[in-house]
Amino acid sequence: MIEERLHKVLARAGIASRRHVEQMMTAGRIKVNGRTVKELGAQIDPDKDHVFVDGRRVKIAADQVGERVYFLLNKPIKVLSTAKDEQGRKTVLDVVVGASEGRIYPVGRLDYDAEGALLLTNDGELTNLLIHPKHKVPKTYMVKVKGVPTDEQLAKLRRGIYLEDGPTGPCQIEVIKKAKVNTWVQVILTQGKNRQIKRMFWRIGHPVQRLVRTHFAGISTEGLEIGKYRALTKRELAYLQQVAQQKETGMPKVPAKPSVARIKVGPKAMKQPV
I want to staple 252 with a disulfide (CB 3.0 to 4.6 A). Which of 60, 138, 175, 232 is the partner? Predict the structure, then answer.
């Protein structure tokens, strides 16, 4: 069989996204035929070589890779968007226990104190497409901020601002509900810097009080209670694959304006801001 890059093989086997596999390689967590491999360009023969991740052998041959599974989780707050935590904190895999017999992992991240749409899968190839910046996959958020931002401040954020790790790039922002002490806005990003929305609104003096991701790549949490998950439909999966492979530079269409009262943060629906 023709040799393939190690990170691609492990992503296809459902270990993690290509980017995460590369991090695992540089950390010395992956061995091939008993030898630790840190070279990012390393190639292997899936039908002949033996690959171990954290001491456990991985099934990588074409006839050993299991069925692909895809889930949407409405992530609660105070849950980490990672497969495991060295400090023993609750992760999204603790929330979806029993969803799959095989290993699954989250597609990208959602802040510890944020909630909403998070995909989980064992499809490393699709994960790599969805999280790669060049594909500009849209993510939609409902954001409650302190005070009432001015039109000029929101225009500045729409154009993009400079943060410590570089420019944010353009985004879509629409005011949904104003009150005396806070405001709900809808934000659509096609890039994902660490804690980007929180840092954006902090920069203009209106810190985020609540953050809810309502859509990921057009897949919505509507009808899915906080802490619950479901399998993607065939139609959703087909749409997701289409979105992941598009390379258009235009901004996505804004979803229908959501009702603030329908956003849930626990057993009861969130009340409208006052």
Answer: 138
Buried b (16+ CB within 10 A) or exposed e, 128-149: bbbbeeebbbbbbbbbbbebeb
Catalytic residue among 111, 123, 151, 165: 111
Query: Tokens representing 97?
Result: 């226990």
- Report the C-alpha gap between 256 and 174 in whole angstroms: 11
- 243 in the same domain as 128: yes
Q: Answer whether residue 213 shows pLDDT above 90.
A: yes
Average the pLDDT over 186-212 and give the result. 94
- Residues 41 and 139 grouped into a single domain: no
Residues 39 and 149 placed together within one structural domain of the fold: no
Q: Bridge-partner residues for 216, per DSSP?
A: 139, 219
In 3D, which of 104, 110, 127 has the Cα closest to residue 18? 127
Total domains present in the chain: 2
Q: Categorize the per-residue pLDDT at 82 as very low, low, confident or very high, splitting at 50, 70 and 90.
A: confident
Considering the domain architecture, whether residues 228 and 264 belong to the same structural domain is answered as yes
Range of the domain at 223: 67-274
Active-site residue 111, yes or no? Answer: yes
CB contact set of 40 (below 8 Å; sequence gap of 6+): 7, 22, 25, 26
Q: What is the mean pLDDT of residues 198-216?
A: 96
Q: CATH number of the domain that 77 lies in?
A: 3.30.2350.10
DSSP-derived secondary structure letter, 39: -
Q: Are residues 148 and 263 in the same domain?
A: yes
